[in-house]
Amino acid sequence: MLYREAGDFKTSYRDDSQTFPIRFDRFAYYVLLAVAFLVVPFVINDYWVNAVLMPFLIYAIAALGLNVLTGYAGQVSLGTGGFMAVGAYACYKLMTAFPDVNIFFHVIIAGGITALVGLLFGLPSLRIKGFYLAVATLAAQFFLVWLFNRVPWFYNNSASGQISAPERSVFGIKVTGPETEAWATYLFCLIFVVASAWIVRNLTRGSTGRRWMAIRDMDIAAEIIGVNPLGAKLSAFAVSSFFVGIAGALFFSVYLGAVEVGEAFGIQKSFLVLFMIIIGGLGSIFGSFAGAAFMVLMPVLLKNSLVGGLGWPTDLAAHLEFMIVGGLILFFLIVEPHGLAALWKVAKEKLRLWPFPH
Question: Distance between CA atoms of 133 and 141, rounded to whole angstroms?
Answer without folding.
Answer: 12
